[in-house]
Design a protein that fits this description.
Blueprint (H helix, E strand, L loop, with lengths): L1 H18 L5 H22 L11 H29 L1 H8 L2 H13 L5 H18 L5 E2 L2 E2 L2 H31 L3 H16 L6 H9 L2 H27 L2 H8 L2 H12 L8 H18 L1
Antiparallel strand pairs: 1-2
Helix pairs in contact: 1-4, 1-10, 1-11, 1-12, 2-3, 2-8, 2-10, 3-4, 3-7, 3-8, 4-7, 4-12, 5-7, 5-11, 6-13, 8-10, 11-13, 12-13
Length: 291
């Protein structure tokens, strides 16, 4: 399930990169949240988990709601802005540093085993973003990437990684109480939409959504469908496997993101040796962590 989720994640950054010059990042964050609740409601009902939401304790429901806000609102906003500044390849790799927090906290909170293999894999996960950061004078094709924008993108990417690292821990806590991943995903998405969806009542946000270019909205909608499917399989994976296994497996998407972003966004992406080396370090680290 984690590998299927990883495959869905491959397309997200590429689609966001195509959409970001056309429509603002906050529009891209809102679109998946609009699509999410109906989608997860239908899936949870189809598999008989809709009526079992009451099996979660109040504390578990709070953890799922927090996971939704932290990941789908805060983390996604930070990540989309990082991608718009750094490009899909660098932005996605920075967000993938979340595996460090997920694995480390899983060991502390859930008593998951810490071995030499995990340590080596984690070090490689750290090395990846460091290699990317060496390209401080990097550029997107045809347009210099200023150091100030580069540093801001790196900071946003790392902040997104913190959010993405926390959310699996909250989800795993709830799923240990009741193994209902489809119902859990519905709770998280509903909480996120309740928070960010309220912005639709603001005239400025409605106007921005309505008047955004259709092509930009189409790319964000494609990203939204992909991310919703990815999250669905991520919740299922977390219900049946440890965080220290699921989190690294999701990082395999990094290598495919680089390949797909270069093939689809050649005019917007440059794959230099630092970016490629950083991606390979992340992927090798993920393989070691799961071997």
């Amino acid at each position: 399930m984690a590998i299927v989720s990883s495959a869905c994640f491959v397309a997200i950054s590429v689609f966001v990169r195509r959409a970001s010059p056309l429509a603002r990042a906050r529009v891209g964050v809102l679109v998946p949240l609009i699509l999410g609740p109906p989608m997860f409601l239908a899936v949870a009902a189809a598999f008989g988990q809709l009526g079992r939401v009451t099996e979660f304790t109040w504390l578990s429901l709070a953890a799922l709601a927090a996971a939704g806000v932290v990941h789908f609102v805060v983390g996604r906003s930070l990540n989309y802005n990082a991608v718009s500044l750094l490009g899909a390849s660098r932005g996605s790799i920075m967000a993938n540093a979340s595996v460090l927090m997920s694995v480390g906290m899983a060991v502390l909170l859930f008593n998951e085993q810490l071995t030499a293999t995990i340590l080596v894999g984690a070090l490689l996960m750290v090395l990846g973003p460091i290699l990317i950061a060496q390209r401080a004078s990097g550029q997107t094709r045809g347009k210099p990437l200023e150091k100030k924008a580069f540093r801001r993108g790196m900071m946003l990417g790392l902040a997104a990684a913190v959010c993405y690292g926390i959310s699996p821990l909250l989800i795993k806590y709830a799923l240990r109480q009741a193994s209902l991943p489809l119902a859990a995903s519905l709770v998280s998405y509903t909480a996120a939409f309740a928070l960010l969806g309220s912005t639709l009542f603001h005239p400025t946000m409605r106007q921005e959504l309505v008047h955004s270019p259709r092509k930009g909205l189409a790319w964000y909608a494609a990203a939204g469908i992909a991310v919703n499917l990815a999250q669905l399989f991520r919740y299922v994976a977390l219900s049946i496997a440890p965080v220290s296994v699921v989190a690294p497996l999701l990082q395999i998407s990094t290598l495919f993101t680089l390949i797909l972003s270069f093939s689809m966004n050649r005019r917007m992406e440059v794959l230099d040796r630092y970016t490629v080396s950083g991606a390979l370090a992340v992927v090798v680290g993920a393989i070691i962590l799961t071997s």
